[in-house]
Amino acid sequence: MIIGVPKEIKNNENRVALTPAGVAEFKKHGHLVYVQKSAGENSGFSDEAYAKAGAELLPTIEAVYEIAEMIIKVKEPIASEYPLIKKDQLLFTYFHFASSEPLTYAMIEREAVCLAYETVEKSDRSLPLLVPMSEVAGRMAIQEGAKYLEKPMKGKGILLGGVPGVPPAKVVVLGGGIVGTQAAKMAAGFGAQVTILDVSLPRLRYLSDVMPANVTTVMSNHYNVMDAISQADLVIGAVLIPGAKAPHLITRDMLKLMSPGTVLVDVAVDQGGCIETCSPTTHENPTFIIDDIVHYCVANMPGAVPYTSTLALTNATLPYALQLANKGWKKACTENEELKKGLNVANGKILYKGVAEAWNLPFEDVETALKDLVYA
């Protein structure tokens, strides 16, 4: 198969979808790999390293899309990339369709095959391609939140861990999944007083067992969320419903419960956000203020630490990408239930229920669609 790796062009997205080591693995299996020049530069991987691993370097993004059968990316295509996508071309990347109607319609129109990292799902319901970036984002949420609590950043002027004789900051984490767990661990490590809320009692039991003493677990409901955020200095939104929009746990009216300078970090913003007043921002302009509350809503947080993120992402995606290349996407998705759940759009049809429901569009069962495509 011919693999294409374009340079990411989303604002301040510094990651790359494939490392030179990944190129070498594809070459070992007999595939051709084309990498756009300077695609890995911001992640610390030179063109020379890709060439040495066996990749062919192409000068433009247009050239990569033109030649490739499978495009491997980090983030969803942006508007300038839509015309470059060919019918039946396989795109393997994060899509988050439920948060972007234009992207959804564009991929339907282009009749591309869209296999989304974020909905590849194991039998235990874990999301193996979302986990590494969720780990990075969860940890970064505290790192960024601590920075924006500083007074020059319009925060309260509170040191996250306090000092002897001065109490630490109060951190509230909404959601006890991968992002929430990593955020709570980092905040606790800083010495903050942490409250983590989740709707699953078994998950809260687990977190109670593994978290340090400065982390308190609380059942998530409307009353408890309001109570927690009214005392918080830093709130982390870490709620995920795979492939669907995140629910709004904090509404506009609830901002008045918080004191001026409180910082909100909505890690779920690329899936619609779990804080109503949050909308996607960039690393260039990461925050905005509503009702004296600082909102940090960067949709590609791991892009700020591209070396770590690229290695972590490739470690997770490469085994799946090799299956797609070795077998072709139809056979790979037919034989592998995890990859099958990653199919969101193919042949101009939506194959993932959460995406169809987000935009009130027709939905075709992926099993039926695959049978029709394989035996067509």
Topology:
Elements: E1 2-5, H1 20-28, E2 32-36, H2 47-53, E3 56-58, H3 61-67, E4 70-72, E5 90-93, H4 101-110, E6 113-116, H5 131-148, E7 170-174, H6 178-190, E8 193-198, H7 201-210, E9 215-219, H8 222-231, E10 234-237, E11 263-266, E12 287-290, E13 293-296, H9 306-327, H10 329-335, H11 337-340, E14 343-346, E15 349-350, H12 353-359, H13 366-374
Helix pairs in contact: 1-2, 5-6, 9-10, 10-13
Q: Please, could you describe this protein's structure?
A:
The chain is of the alpha/beta class. It folds into 2 domains: 2-119 and 307-374, NAD(P)-binding Rossmann-like Domain (Rossmann fold); 131-299, NAD(P)-binding Rossmann-like Domain (Rossmann fold). It has helices at 20-28, 47-53, 61-67, 101-110, 131-148, 178-190, 201-210, 222-231, 306-327, 329-335, 337-340, 353-359, 366-374, and strands at 2-5, 32-36, 56-58, 70-72, 90-93, 113-116, 170-174, 193-198, 215-219, 234-237, 263-266, 287-290, 293-296, 343-346, 349-350. The strands form 2 sheets. The chain has an 8-stranded mixed sheet with strand order 3-2-1-4-5-6-14-15, sandwiched between helices. It has a 7-stranded mixed sheet with strand order 9-8-7-10-11-13-12, with helices on both faces. Helix 1 (20-28) links the parallel strand 1 and strand 2 (32-36). Helix 10 crosses helix 13 (366-374). The two termini are 21 Å apart. The model has no long low-confidence stretch (mean pLDDT 95). NAD(+) binds at residues 134, 198, 203, 220, 239-240, 267-270, 298-301. It comes from Flavobacterium alvei.
